[in-house]
Amino acid sequence: MSDIKQYIRRILIIALVIYVSFQLQVSIFGQIPLGGVTPNVLIAVVSTYGFMKGRRYGIVTGFFAGLLLDIFSGGIFGMYALIYMYIGFLNGLFRKQLFGDDLRLPMILIGASDFIYGLATFLFLFAIRSQYDFYFYLMNIILPEVVYTILVSIFVYYIILHINNWVEKLEKKGSDRIGNY
């Protein structure tokens, strides 16, 4: 029974992190664009869970974060869920290379993930409609968004790292308590 409670607790915490990140992305950061772009907080969350917890967490987190965007964006339904799932999967491949407080790999992965997201968005939303001004999109949308996302991701990464450590302590404390009875 304790394993089910821990699993449900972890799911609820991840769902809350996704929801709060979505709200930050569309409300607060949506009101303060820098250079005409807003940071992609959900990419930071999906990437972080991917390389912290592995491919499965990355895929599931990516699917639900993308589904949330799909529901509220009104675009091609399922596009964001698919993009975010792949991004979560790709970040999950780097799980064994992560070293807690070292920021280099997480920021590189989050930046690369946002770049991949920008390329995929360009292909799905613009190139299909014969709008081929890729250089303009790259210089004015993709790269500024990558920089802004990396800056915001420093805080997002540490918050998720502390939440993850807290949850693991709770799970360890709960399993130690069960072992003592």
What layout of secondary structure does this protein have?
Layout: H1 2-31, H2 41-53, H3 55-73, H4 79-92, H5 104-125, H6 134-180
Helix pairs in contact: 1-3, 1-6, 2-3, 2-4, 2-5, 2-6, 3-4, 4-5, 5-6
How would you describe what is shown here?
With 181 residues, the protein is mostly helical. 80% of the residues lie in helices and 0% in strands. The protein contains six helices and no strands. The chain has helices spanning 2-31, 41-53, 55-73, 79-92, 104-125, 134-180. The protein is globular.
Give a brief rundown of this model:
The chain is mainly alpha-helical and 181 residues long. Helix content is 80%, strand content 0%.
How large, in whole angstroms, is the Cα Rg? 17 Å
Q: Please bin the fraction of helical residues.
A: over 70%
Mean pLDDT: 88
* Relative strand content: under 5%
- Note the run of SSEs as H and E: HHHHHH
Describe the global form.
Answer: globular
Structure characteristics:
181 residues; mainly alpha; 80% helix; globular
